[in-house]
Structure formats: C-alpha cells, structure tokens
Amino acid sequence: MTDYAVAVDNLEKRFGSFVAVDRVSFRVARGEVFGFLGPNGAGKSTTIRMLCGILAPSGGSGTVAGFDIRRQPEMVKTRIGYMSQKFSLYQDLTVEENIDFYGGIYCIPAETLRRRKEWVIEMAGLAEHRRRPASILSGGWKQRLALGCAILHEPPIVFLDEPTSGVDPISRRRFWNLIYDLSGRGVTVFVTTHYMDEAEYCNRLGLIYRGQLIALGTPHELKTELAEEQVRADSILSPRPPAGEGPGVRADSMPTLEDVFVARIEAHDRAEQPQRETRQ
C-alpha cells in the first residue's frame, strides 16, 4: 500500500451500536486531487479524522504517507496538513502570530519559518493585514490563511474538510486555484465537499452515503457509467431507437454529477430497503 499516498481497506468506525464508517476501501495516488463527497452525516469527517490519526479505527486498515493509521498515528501527523471546516485559526491572534504559532507546533527552524511565513502572507494576499487580528478578516482571507498554516511545514499530503463552506463563489474559485497549484507541485490533496461544481475539479471522486462508499471514479467515468445504464434501461423499454439514432450515449444527454449523486443514493436506498424491513 506504500505506493499510494492514502490506502485503506475495509476501514470502519463505530460509536456504540452506530456505524459511522462501514468497511470503506479506496486508494489515492500521489499528487492526486481526491474529492470525498456525501451529504451531512455520511461519514466524510469521521473518515478524514481516522486518516489524520485523530480517531482510532474500529476495524480495517490503512496507511497515509506509508505510515499505519492504527499503529503510527503520530508519524502520520508529521507528514500531513489538516484544515478543518472552522479554518483552525486563533481569532485573537494576528495573521503573523497565527503563522508563528503553527510554526512552533511543527517545530520549523527559525530561518525556514521566516521564509515560509512570507510565502503564506503573499499566497493569502495579506501583506497589508499581517499585523491585524484574524477575527477581522473576510471569509476568503481566513480560508487562505488557514490553508497556509496547514501547509506551513510543506507536507506531502493535505486533508481539507469542507474548506469552502460559507465563503463566496469568487473566494471558492481562488481557493481551488491554490489546490491546483499544490497538486502541480506533487502534493496530494484529499478534500471533502458537498458542492457539485467543486467535485468536477477533482481528479477522482469517492461518494460516501450512510457510512458506505457507493461510487468511485473520475467525474467522467461516473457520469458515463450512469449514462450507459440509462441507455440500457431505455433500450429495454423501447428496443427500437428513433429513426436516425443508433445505440449509445449522446453528448447532449450526458448526466451531471448531481444526477450521479442522486441516482447512486436512490439505488443504495432501494437495495437496503428489504434489509431494513427484515430487521424491523
């Protein structure tokens, strides 16, 4: 599994009788932008916290940057950057003080920290606000500053847990430009989101629902797979295609990722319904 930045097999997390993550398996290549989609409560954040060494798995196995998430969680933490939904900033500290604080946490040497601090301030567009408290910054500025703090130590893997929630569309687009820049420099980016337009920006996607991984592939693969299923279903109902049209997927009939999202959830619910009725 060490050939991948992230690799998990049958990963599971239980809280009492509740199964938050149910035997999830996937791989993330080095330098890939991997999107993890799902509705609220689906298990996205719980999965990320296990991968970051914050939560211990209840079952299964996994590695992050080659380290075992069950046996070497502290080593995992030294090789990743993590940005939570709350941006992980200290509101009463200034921009520079937040960066210095994270530099201390990551034990970054003074000379390296000076260089990295200037990079973060420039990247975030905060040169004129470096001595202002984080509390007065706009959502977009806080977002970029939090990302800068998360990657201050130049980790090879970055976990972003719904990082664009609550920011305006322009800030979201700028943030994704930063993600592309990181990926272009070989950094693996694992990002959770519930925005379908952002899902299109990812190299590959995993769709989690009720703790289970119900779809995995590139955006194009997922849409094409659903389109082909729809063509097969239509051919059963109408065996003869309209005059002038042959079988296959027409470009103008390609489903959206939102269509994929809804179809896979509905299919999962239909498959689970008999089991739920049996248990009742």
Give me the secondary-structure category. alpha/beta
Strand count, sense and closure of the main sheet?
Answer: 6 strands, mixed
Number of strands: 10
Oligomer: single chain
Mean pLDDT figure:
89
What is the level 1 CATH name of the largest domain? Alpha Beta
- Looking at CATH, the homologous superfamily of the largest domain is P-loop containing nucleotide triphosphate hydrolases
CATH architecture of the largest domain: 3-Layer(aba) Sandwich
Give an overview of the whole structure.
This protein has about 280 residues and is an alpha/beta fold. It folds into two domains: about 5-210, P-loop containing nucleotide triphosphate hydrolases (Rossmann fold), CATH 3.40.50; about 220-280, no CATH class. Helices cover about 40% and strands about 20% of the residues. The chain contains nine helices and ten strands. The chain has helices at about 45-50, 75-80, 95-105, 110-125, 140-150, 170-185, 195-200, 220-235, 255-280; strands at about 5-15, 20-30, 35, 60-65, 65-70, 80-85, 155-160, 190-195, 205-210, 210-215. Strands 6-7-8-3-9-10 form a six-stranded mixed sheet, with helices on both faces. A hairpin with a 2-residue loop joins strand 9 (about 205-210) and strand 10. The longest helix is centred in the last third of the chain and has 23 residues, at about 255-280. The chain starts with 5 loop residues before the first strand and ends with a helix. The relative contact order is 0.14. The mean pLDDT is about 90.
